[in-house]
């Protein structure tokens, strides 16, 4: 809890993932880009992200940076896939209405597409926050010398059951 409260790692991962609004719009708009990205997005969760952890430590060093990057990596795919699903669910009639009203592309995106896909985008943001918290806690198990993940890993190694239950209560409730 110390790392998350002090440094805001899950929030940083979620904010990074929400700033990826353009790749999902591009993938939805251009079928070629979508055909290239879809297999990678489908396989993404099957690949262990923590296999990248040693490479991240070498590239950015120890500390908070690799933890935030892993949190963002876990979150970004949830936002992209749910946004594409939301854009797919927009009725074609709304797109025709935007064209009939002679809206520019930016106006169509801001006034038609995003409001119609907002429910799916919100679901993606909820998943992104959850996945980034999981990524941060799991990376704290491995690397950190402080924080909730380190506390849980340390209590597990020393077999301190009371500390484990207190940590789970502080996190869940």
Backbone shape: elongated
Radius of gyration: 20 Å
CATH superfamily: MetI-like
Spell the H/E element sequence. Answer: HHHHHHHHHH
The biggest sheet, with number of strands, parallel, antiparallel or mixed sense and barrel status, is: none
| Approximate helicity band | over 70%
What is the mean predicted local confidence, pLDDT?
77
Which strand-content bin applies to the residues?
A: under 5%
Which class do the helix and strand fractions yield?
mainly alpha
CATH arch. level architecture: Orthogonal Bundle
CATH topology: MetI-like fold
DSSP, total strands: 0
- How far the N terminus sits from the C terminus, by CA atoms, comes to 13 Å
CATH class: Mainly Alpha
Outline the low-pLDDT stretches: 1-8, 13-20
Number of helices: 10
Number of domain modules? 1
Describe, in short, the structure shown:
The chain is mainly α. It has one domain: Orthogonal Bundle (MetI-like fold). It contains ten helices and no strands.
Layout of helices and strands, plus pairs?
Layout: H1 2-7, H2 9-18, H3 21-29, H4 31-43, H5 53-60, H6 64-88, H7 92-100, H8 105-142, H9 148-157, H10 161-172
Helix pairs in contact: 2-6, 2-8, 3-4, 3-6, 5-6, 6-8, 7-8, 8-9, 9-10
């Amino acid at each position: 809890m110390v790392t998350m409260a002090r440094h805001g790692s899950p929030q940083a991962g979620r904010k990074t993932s929400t700033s990826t609004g353009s790749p999902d719009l591009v993938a939805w708009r251009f079928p070629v880009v979508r055909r290239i990205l879809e297999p990678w997005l489908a396989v993404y969760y099957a690949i262990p992200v923590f296999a990248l952890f040693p490479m991240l430590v070498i590239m950015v060093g120890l500390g908070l940076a690799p933890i935030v990057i892993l949190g963002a990596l876990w979150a970004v795919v949830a936002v992209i896939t749910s946004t594409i699903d939301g854009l797919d669910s927009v009725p074609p009639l709304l797109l025709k209405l935007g064209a009939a009203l002679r809206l520019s592309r930016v106006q169509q995106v801001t006034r038609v597409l995003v409001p119609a896909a907002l429910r799916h985008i919100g679901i993606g943001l909820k998943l992104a926050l959850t996945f980034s918290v999981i990524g941060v806690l799991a990376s704290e198990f491995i690397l950190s010398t402080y924080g909730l993940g380190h506390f849980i890993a340390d209590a597990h190694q020393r077999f301190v059951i009371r500390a484990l239950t207190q940590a789970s209560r502080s996190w869940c409730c």
